[in-house]
């Protein structure tokens, strides 16, 4: 398997080069040169694999044989040995038509750990094998930063710098990032919102000299390896539900969405042959993607701070990958649309393409009160405490509850990370001890204004220290 860019001017390149390149050098996103088709017989064989075995099977289609099998196996086992649940991503039944896929059993209590524990191991492996300096740079709406830092803190040959929007992440998210004392970690607290942080990062990655001189690598979901690691749990969850229901009917997946990374992983799983009915895209009030799916117009609206801050995103960095596929893999058209987006601030797709979008996706934007009501309702009716992001997913799947379908809704974070919303529901929760312990640790972060110049200055100083 080799990798190409949605804008047509990279490649073909191998798996490790794609991993290190992150954002395509032509400004596009890297995608596999073809999507492997998994047969029904193969799916059946995979049903009884452990999570780790399934990772190895799926990765074998994508790694271009660049990592010896024994090495890959060790990387995968080390990545998931840090999880608190032996199943890694267990599935819980909430009622006959709704299952929850719990993705928050990793070290930082959010789903980002699933890909970033692996990427941390892989960066360390590549750095050692190729004797390479690796400087990770990322923007976070809260969870990616904590998770990426956890994946590489204290690792030799690696430094990590993370931009987060000052005051716009939850208290626990902030503490998880800023109480890490390892000297290979830099937290920049940026005046602005997540879109500002993400734009600065994307511009730095697009400056190829700066990127090469500073050995920059990306951990945001612009990195295809992150998407790939997340594809695994769609398969795994489907198999667990099939085993419980005895039916191999296609299932819905409801996905709390910000950057379109997680739901794109679901789309990839479907394209590989997983029996998926609808991908239900759940947003909060920052609903650019809901509007795209309803109307075929991709146009950022005003930024809103919500109870689900990890989804407070207007410009979804992964959206271009999906556009590429829904418009029949035509790089010239993607270049034109993305240029138009830069110029006019919107993308409009043709009616026939919108019809195809609506076959694959449903969408629902969840309002603040609706999010809190969903948390309260499920706590009362089932005893299960949803975090506000997972509640958006469940609320969006509830919209279709009359349809006689079975939905797996992704639980993307542990409620203890977002106690601000839980407290508003009048619910008192017990914090896991790892989270409780954060409150007594000293914090370390650097405040910066939103200017690219100041951020570049801080980065260069850190990377060269
Ligand atoms: C990152 C995140 C999301 C959104 O995922 P995307 O891949 O950006 O769409 C949803 N919920 C939580 C808790 C997150 O951390």
UniProtKB/TrEMBL annotation:
Question: What are the entry keywords?
Answer: Lyase, Pyridoxal phosphate
What are the Threonine synthase N-terminal domain coordinates in residue numbering?
A: 2-80
An MF annotation (GO) of this entry: threonine synthase activity
Q: Which GO terms describe its biological process?
A: threonine biosynthetic process
Q: Which residues carry this modification: N6-(pyridoxal phosphate)lysine?
A: 112
User: In this protein, which residues make up the domain named Tryptophan synthase beta chain-like PALP?
Assistant: 91-398
Name the Enzyme Commission number(s) assigned to this protein: 4.2.3.1
- What does the record give as cofactor? pyridoxal 5'-phosphate
| Xref: InterPro entries | Thr_synth_N, Thr_synth_N_sf, Thr_synthase-like, Threonine_Synthase, TrpB-like_PALP, TrpB-like_PALP_sf
What PANTHER family is this protein classified in? THREONINE SYNTHASE FAMILY MEMBER, THREONINE SYNTHASE-LIKE 2
Concerning its family, UniProt says: Belongs to the threonine synthase family.
State the name under which the record lists this protein: Threonine synthase
Native source organism of the sequence: Paenibacillus radicis
Originating gene:
thrC
């Amino acid at each position: 398997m080799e990798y190409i860019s949605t804008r047509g001017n990279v490649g073909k390149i191998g798996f490790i080069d794609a991993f290190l390149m992150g954002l395509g050098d032509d400004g596009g996103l890297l995608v596999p040169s073809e999507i492997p088709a998994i047969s029904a017989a193969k799916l059946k064989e995979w049903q009884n694999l452990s999570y780790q075995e399934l990772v190895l099977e799926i990765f074998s289609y994508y790694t271009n044989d660049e990592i010896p099998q024994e090495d890959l196996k060790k990387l995968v086992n080390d990545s998931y040995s840090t999880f608190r649940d032996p199943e890694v991503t267990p599935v819980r039944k909430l009622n006959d038509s709704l299952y929850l896929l719990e993705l928050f059993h990793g070290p930082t209590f959010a789903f980002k750990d699933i890909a970033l524990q692996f990427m941390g191991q892989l960066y360390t492996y590549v750095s050692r094998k190729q004797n390479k300096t690796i400087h990770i740079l990322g923007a976070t709406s809260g969870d990616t930063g904590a998770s990426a830092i956890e994946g590489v803190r204290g690792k030799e040959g690696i430094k990590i710098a993370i931009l987060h929007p000052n005051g716009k992440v939850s208290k626990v998210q902030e503490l998880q990032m800023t109480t890490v004392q390892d000297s290979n970690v830099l937290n920049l607290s940026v005046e602005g919102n997540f879109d500002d942080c993400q734009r600065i990062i994307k511009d730095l990655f697009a400056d190829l000299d700066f990127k090469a001189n500073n050995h920059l690598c990306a951990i945001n979901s612009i990195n295809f390896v992150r998407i790939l690691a997340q594809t695994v749990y769609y398969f795994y969850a489907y198999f667990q539900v099939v085993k419980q229901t005895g039916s191999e009917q296609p299932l819905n997946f409801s996905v709390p969405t910000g950057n379109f990374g997680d739901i794109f992983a679901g789309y990839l799983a479907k394209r590989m042959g997983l029996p998926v009915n609808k991908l239900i895209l759940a947003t909060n009030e920052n609903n650019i993607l809901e509007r795209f799916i309803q109307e075929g117009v991709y146009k950022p609206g005003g930024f809103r701070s919500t109870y689900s801050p990890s989804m407070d995103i207007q410009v979804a960095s992964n959206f271009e990958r999906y556009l590429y596929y829904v418009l029949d893999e035509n790089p010239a058209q993607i270049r034109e649309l993305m240029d138009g987006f830069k110029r006019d601030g919107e993308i409009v797709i043709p009616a026939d393409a919108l019809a195809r979008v609506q076959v694959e996706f449903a969408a629902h934007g969840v309002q603040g009160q609706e999010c809190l009501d969903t948390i309260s309702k499920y706590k009362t009716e089932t005893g299960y405490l949803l975090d506000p992001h997972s509640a958006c997913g469940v609320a969006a799947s509830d919209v279709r509850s009359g349809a006689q379908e079975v939905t797996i809704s992704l639980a993307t974070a542990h409620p203890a990370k977002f106690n601000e919303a839980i407290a508003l529901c009048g619910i008192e929760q017990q914090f896991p001890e790892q989270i409780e312990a954060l409150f007594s640790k000293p914090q370390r972060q650097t405040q910066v204004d939103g200017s690219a110049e100041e951020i570049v200055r801080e980065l260069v100083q850190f990377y060269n220290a």
